[in-house]
């Protein structure tokens, strides 16, 4: 599995983000490119503890059921349900959103994979940085594929 902690793979992911334009259309789904960039930044902000998700037992139970399967696969399926933290509006600021996402991807790559820090996900509860890495890489890859890059 590719990792944001691997500098070459981190740069490759950033290169794919840089290929996006405000006019890039999704191959599936309804998000705009600007909206997708903001949506993807949410998981990085959660990993750093900057967004604290609300938890409810229903989401955590779903997370317990799919957790092993999620970490064992390289790709997400299309049109998965999400929580309110990830539902973002198109703010029309594509360039700003792109710069911000790239900055967070770089920042995450500089964290130690063995960091004892944990932060919370709405479905999976507390995650280690290694778990966040796996989840964030798959999430970013999924949405970049959605936009053909």
Describe the structure.
A hairpin with a 3-residue loop joins β1 and β2. Helix content is 52%, strand content 5%. It has one domain. By secondary structure, the protein is mostly helical. A two-stranded antiparallel sheet has the order 1-2. The radius of gyration is 15 Å and the shape is globular. The longest helix has 18 residues. It is built from five helices and two strands; from the N terminus they run ααααββα.
Distance between the termini: 18 Å
Structural domain count: 1
Extended strand count: 2
The largest pleated sheet is described as: 2 strands, antiparallel
Order of helices and strands: HHHHEEH
Placed side by side, the strands forming the largest sheet appear as: 1-2
Q: Could you tell me the strand content as a percent range?
A: 5-15%
Q: Any idea what the shape is?
A: globular
Mean model confidence by pLDDT = 88
């Amino acid at each position: 599995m590719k990792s944001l902690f691997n500098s070459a793979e981190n740069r490759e992911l950033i290169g794919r983000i840089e290929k996006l334009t405000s006019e890039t259309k999704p191959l599936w789904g309804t998000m705009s490119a600007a909206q997708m960039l903001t949506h993807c930044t949410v998981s990085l902000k959660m990993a750093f503890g900057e967004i604290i998700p609300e938890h409810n037992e229903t989401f955590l139970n779903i997370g317990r059921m799919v957790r092993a399967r999620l970490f064992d696969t390289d790709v997400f399926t299309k049109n998965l349900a999400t929580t309110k933290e990830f539902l973002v509006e198109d703010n029309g600021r594509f360039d700003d959103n792109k710069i911000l996402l790239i900055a967070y991807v770089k920042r995450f790559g500089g964290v130690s994979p063995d960091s004892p820090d944990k932060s919370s996900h709405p479905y999976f509860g507390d995650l280690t940085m290694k778990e966040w890495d796996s989840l964030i890489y798959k999430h970013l890859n999924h949405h970049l594929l959605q936009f053909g890059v």
